[in-house]
Specification:
alpha/beta, Nucleotidyltransferase, domain 5, 3 domains, seven-stranded mixed beta sheet, 14 helices, 17 strands, 23% strand
């Protein structure tokens, strides 16, 4: 009986404790999987801790020391990391530029860093219609229809679900400033109705202040040049429009602060940073307005205007007033004398710091340089003031189009006599930087999103 009982217990123990090779293999797999899972968890935990430290350090460095190279590099790395992780939100901003010669829409796409709120530009839509909004002074509805065309283009970029929170604003420049108040008000009202019905978040229609026109252009250039966080090494921005021209930079010398007229220095917020900016807009010194001023300098009220700045008679129309231009002692030298006399009447401020800084020039500075063959269309280049002086002399002695002589003489005079840049002074000419337009619109987009 005892032998039978022992046999039974052995059989039961074997059934419960002994395992087949398959069962043992499965058990070993579970143990390996458990160890692997534990290692993955530990690695993920370490990675999360490292990323958190990186995020925190980069955020603190960028906030406290934005000009530090390490902070800039860390900020870029942080932006890239968050974009790849899908953490950064996609945001849009729509800016309508109602200039004197045409209206443009610039619709921007950004990734927004959730920690630093830094905006990384990733796409730009650009469309233009002509003539400018000010040309519709007597037909505000027709003017508003041209803006609707631009709004329709922007709608193709922004997903429907994000349109309500996407800011849109139209900012008019010198063209509307020069219109009678009642006519500009009618245009603004008609355009505002278009924006209200656009589906975007309407931030209004306005004649942009001269300060903001210069400031936004400076922000655009230095953002694209990656110098916004380093104001002491940032660029001077020279913008030449049709009705006005702007000069803007961040001063670094005490003498500039001491000797500059107070109305040229402005305390501003630039992408959440407070700084003092030198900025001035010269209304009437835009390329088209300057032409008119030069033609009419010392002229009587006759419908035929003698001028040394053209080589053949031509019709001139400005603000719907038509006159006939007739060449009188045409030459580069006599035209330059007239340009200098006109500039002297408007007293361009000559700041000693400007010639010591890097300069970025755009808009008509670029366009007319291309027309003169100083650089090729689509090309960016660093040129000298002497290149404009040489091109002006050629254009006046060997004319190829009616207004190239006067335009190049004026640009040369503005740079050399107005801003006191030496003949060998260098300036960069840009239509685009890294594939994006050198327009004040990008700077305006940053301001819209900061308010949004």
């Amino acid at each position: 009986m005892n032998d039978e009982r022992e046999f039974e217990l052995r059989q039961r123990g074997r059934g419960q404790g002994d395992r087949s090779p398959l069962q043992e293999a499965r058990s070993e797999d579970k143990e390996v999987e458990s160890r692997r899972s534990s290692k993955i968890d530990q690695t993920c935990t370490k990675l999360i801790i490292m990323i958190s430290i990186l995020l925190g350090a980069a955020s603190i460095a960028f906030t406290m020391f934005p000009e530090c190279l390490i902070a800039v590099v860390a900020s870029r790395a942080l932006d890239t990391l968050l974009i790849k992780l899908g953490v950064s939100a996609t945001v849009y901003a729509i800016v309508l530029d109602a200039g004197s010669t045409g209206s443009r829409v610039l619709a921007f796409t950004f990734y927004e860093n959730p920690l630093t709120k830094h905006l990384e530009l990733v796409d730009e839509l650009w469309e233009e219609v002509k003539p400018g909004l000010s040309s519709f002074a007597d037909d505000s509805d027709a003017g508003a229809n041209t803006i609707q065309v631009l709004i329709d283009a922007a709608l193709t970029l922004v997903p429907e679900k994000q349109r309500k929170q996407t800011p849109v604003s139209l900012k008019a420049t010198a063209g509307l400033r020069l219109l009678p108040a009642a006519k500009s008000a009618a245009l603004i009202s008609a355009v505002n109705e278009v924006l209200e019905s656009s589906g975007f978040n309407n931030k209004g229609v306005e004649i942009m202040s001269e300060l903001h026109e210069g400031l936004y252009g400076w922000v655009t250039v230095n953002y694209l040049m990656e110098q916004l966080n380093n104001p002491r090494k940032s660029y001077v921005a020279l913008d030449l429009g049709g009705g006005s021209t702007q000069i803007t930079f961040s001063p670094k010398y005490d003498e500039t602060f001491q000797l500059t007229p107070s109305n040229f220095l402005h305390q501003v917020s630039v992408i959440r940073q407070r700084m003092t900016i030198y900025s001035h807009s010269y209304l009437g010194l835009g390329l088209i307005a300057a032409r008119n001023a030069i033609f009419n300098h010392k002229a009587d009220n006759s419908s035929v205007i003698p001028t040394p700045c053209i080589s053949a008679s031509v019709t001139w129309n400005y603000n719907n007033q038509e006159s006939r231009l007739h060449p009188h002692l045409p030459s580069y030298e006599t035209c330059m004398i007239q340009v200098i006399e006109m500039l002297d009447t408007l007293r361009v401020h000559q700041c000693d710091e400007v010639p010591t800084r890097k300069i970025a020039a755009f808009s008509y500075f670029y366009d007319r340089a291309v027309d003169a063959g100083i650089l090729q269309k689509g090309e960016s280049a660093v040129v000298q003031v002497q290149d404009f002086l040489n091109a002006a002399e050629v254009a006046c002695t060997q004319p190829t189009e009616p207004f190239l002589c006067i335009d190049l003489v004026y640009i040369s005079g503005l740079l050399h006599h107005g801003y006191k840049l030496s003949a060998d002074a260098k300036l960069g000419l840009y239509k685009q930087i890294n594939g994006y337009s050198t327009s004040w619109a990008l700077g305006a987009a940053f301001a819209l999103l900061e308010e949004n």
